[in-house]
Amino acid sequence: MRKAIFVSLFILATIFLLSGMVSAQSSDSCPVQWVSDSYGGIPYGAVVCGNEADGTPLYLARAYYNGGLHPGKVRPEFGSANIGYGDDEVKVNPYEVYCGGGTWVAASGGAVPAGAVVCGYDTNGEPLYAARAYYAGGLQIGKVRPEFGGADITYGGYEYTVNSYEVLCCAWDYPVYPSRRTLQIG
Q1: Whole-angstrom distance between the N-terminal and C-terminal Cα of the chain?
Q2: Which phi and psi angles does 70 have, rounded to 5°?
């Protein structure tokens, strides 16, 4: 009897601990999964969403900063998630890495396409969406909301607004839980 109780408590404790490590949201059309990490860690199933000019992969990340949850980018060499805030590129630990599916849809001028994945919120509570744009020879990852007038991406310590970009949107063409270490989308 004691052994059964101990096993039950162990299972419940394990589920409780793991639930804090994986954040999932699901709308009617798009299951989304974020996995906690820090100090440049890239979890199993992370999705390659961009690249540096030399081809180094960039992963979509999000991190809490100054009252908001901001989409940004991560790669092991950064040692953090890099997000844009107040015209600067800010390094934040811990962070969450995107491990969901989707497709990238072209947009410009602050537009957010139908089906865009909500990836965070600004300090004023407005939703933020993941965006990516070509900058400095690479495909940089950042965030967008209509009031920005474009996508805000970071590079070299600064935040830049880019007029033409792509936004992460729901699509069933891609697996939600990739079977390989990384899955490139786009």
Answers
A1: 54
A2: -105, 125
* Rounded Cα distance, 119 and 141, in Å: 12
138-172 residue pLDDT tens:
999 999 999 999 999 999 999 999 999 999 998 64
Residue 139 CA to residue 58 CA, distance in Å, equals 8
Kindly state whether residue 3 falls inside one of the protein's structural domains.
no
Tell me, yes or no, whether 81 lies in a domain. Answer: yes
Instruction: Tell me the pTM.
Output: 0.78
Lowest mean pLDDT among 26-40, 81-95, 106-120: 26-40
Question: What is the domain range of residue 27?
Answer: 23-184
Enumerate the H helices of the chain as residue ranges: 2-19
Q: Output the six-digit token pair for 34.
A: 């974020």
Q: State the virtual CA torsion across 26, 84, 123, 45 in degrees, nearest 10.
A: 20
Structural domain contains residue 6:
no
In a domain, 1, yes or no: no
Structural domains in the chain (count)? 1
